[in-house]
């Protein structure tokens, strides 16, 4: 809590309890800042914010007079992170902040770092919400808006947390949510086509990803995947010293060899000319890279290989390759994969296992990049035995239109897919189709607990729905036998 006079050059002893950008969330004592959203100008909701108890308003328009103090700034969007820094007393200065950006691998790499450093010392913010010292919750976005981000950092610092591993999304850089945040370490995993509905061009997308490297402190560390095709663009943007990982012997962390099995991965890394034999619980080649990035993230904070290696066995990434305990002759896996690259990597790994068919349930989020949808569908049908296309957070779009776009390039696959719009029914159909040693993969949402429909957000969890589908099938089969 701060007085308004501590935030702005204004003679007012009004106490500000919190900062809000959504008038519906305003409570008595809050300061309402009128940012410009994708679809809304928050200046239009000033009266609603005041009605709900806002003590002061920050605007960028002239001529606004109300019964509460009105502070005029040049640009409310740019002002928001600056205001949050002042209000929460610059919590980022009390934390070592590690940002992770990339099309795929952000959640896994951030979670790996959190685990390697230790959950008693390192917090997490990202797709799976926030976690620190046993506290956890949802954030709404991969990288939350500045009021939530700085509030969480303040709570972490006050709770004795010293490090923060956070996902830094391209959209967050585009929206300016982290415009004034300097990172101690910036990690880049990979870039493939994504979010062009926001960025317009692939070049703009790469530029937003590179902002993490530009905002890494000069005495900080930029950690890059040397095997990614856009490595050179990221390298050019680096502000701190550069560390690399990959299959090049000159990498800071050299991936010398690895063997993926159905239950773990055996990896040989080389660091400082010394070989390390790693037994990782993470599966797939892509996780060999994610683990390499995570190890370097921990090392950049001053930890040693000898300190972090014992923690590798404890790594678990919620919503990633979650093989459900179904006690059935077929398998069910839930995963967050939703990009063509992520889907392809997952399916290629799955088919190295001792399975027969792969049956994929997948959709594509509404009001997001529509250009990737035909490629997503093609990737599923090129790599899976059967695809069931359904809705996934359709928002204002017609889910049937989205599904049609997903299969628009699938003319040569007319025998191995179907469209079932209702996601619950799609999951049940996939489970009912499965024969012995088949693998059902429910992709796109991981362990998230919601679906965003046209006019509301409903509770929906793919894992729970899958377990229910398995239960119903068992019940049906038992009754048919009796």
Describe this structure in words.
With 482 residues, this protein is α/β, with parallel strands linked by helices. The protein is built from 16 helices and 25 strands. The chain has an eleven-stranded mixed β-sheet, with helices on both faces. It is globular. The N and C termini lie far apart (66 Å).
Question: N- to C-terminal separation?
Answer: 66 Å
Low-confidence stretches: none
Q: Cα-atom Rg, whole angstroms?
A: 24 Å
Helix content: 25-40%
Per DSSP E runs of 2 or more residues, the count of β-strands stands at 25
* Average pLDDT score: 93
Strand content: 15-25%
Largest beta sheet: strand ordering: 10-9-8-11-7-12-13-14-15-16-17
Shape: globular
Main β-sheet: number of strands, strand sense, barrel status? 11 strands, mixed
- By DSSP (H or I, 4+ residues per run), the number of helices equals 16
Protein structure class: alpha/beta
């Amino acid at each position: 809590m701060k007085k308004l006079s501590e935030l702005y050059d204004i003679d007012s002893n009004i106490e500000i309890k919190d900062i809000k950008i959504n008038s519906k969330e305003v409570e008595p004592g809050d300061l309402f800042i009128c940012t410009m959203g994708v679809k809304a100008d928050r200046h239009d909701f000033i009266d609603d914010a005041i009605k709900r108890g806002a003590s002061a308003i920050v605007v960028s328009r002239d001529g606004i007079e109300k019964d509460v103090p009105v502070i005029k700034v040049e640009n409310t969007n740019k002002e928001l992170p600056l205001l949050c820094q002042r209000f929460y007393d610059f919590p980022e200065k009390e934390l070592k902040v590690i940002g992770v950006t990339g099309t795929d691998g952000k959640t896994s790499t951030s979670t790996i770092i959190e685990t390697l450093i230790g959950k008693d010392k390192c917090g997490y913010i990202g797709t799976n919400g926030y976690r620190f010292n046993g506290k956890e919750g949802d954030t709404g976005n991969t990288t939350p808006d500045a009021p939530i981000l700085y509030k969480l950092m303040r709570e972490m610092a006050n709770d004795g947390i010293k490090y923060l591993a956070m996902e830094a999304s391209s959209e967050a850089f585009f929206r300016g949510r982290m415009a004034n945040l300097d990172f101690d370490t910036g990690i880049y995993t990979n870039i493939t086509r994504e979010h062009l509905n926001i960025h317009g061009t692939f070049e703009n997308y790469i530029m937003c990803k590179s902002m993490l490297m530009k905002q890494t402190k000069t005495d900080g560390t930029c950690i890059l995947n040397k095997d990614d095709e856009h490595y050179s663009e990221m390298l050019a943007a680096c502000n701190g010293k550069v560390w690399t990982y990959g299959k090049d012997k000159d990498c800071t962390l050299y991936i010398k060899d690895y063997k993926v099995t159905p239950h773990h991965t055996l990896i040989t890394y080389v660091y400082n000319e010394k070989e390390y034999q790693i037994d990782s619980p993470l599966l797939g080649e892509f996780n060999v890279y994610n683990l390499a990035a995570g190890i370097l993230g921990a090392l950049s904070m001053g930890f040693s290989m000898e300190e972090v290696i014992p923690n590798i066995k404890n790594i678990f990434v919620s919503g990633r390759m979650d093989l459900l305990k179904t006690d059935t002759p077929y398998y069910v896996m839930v995963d967050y994969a939703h990009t063509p690259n992520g889907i392809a990597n997952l399916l290629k790994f799955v088919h190295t296992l001792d399975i027969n068919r792969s049956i994929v349930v997948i959709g594509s989020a509404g009001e997001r990049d529509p250009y990737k949808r035909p490629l997503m569908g093609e990737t599923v049908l090129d790599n899976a035995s059967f695809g069931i296309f359904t809705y996934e957070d359709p928002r204002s779009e017609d889910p049937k239109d989205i599904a049609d776009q997903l299969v628009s390039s699938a003319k040569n696959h007319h025998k191995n897919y179907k469209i079932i719009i209702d996601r619950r029914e799609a999951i049940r159909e996939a489970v009912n189709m499965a024969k012995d040693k088949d693998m059902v993969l429910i992709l796109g949402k991981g362990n998230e607990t919601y679906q965003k429909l046209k006019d509301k957000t409903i509770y929906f969890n793919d894992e729970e729905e899958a377990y229910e589908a398995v239960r119903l099938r068992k019940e049906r089969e038992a009754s048919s036998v009796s």
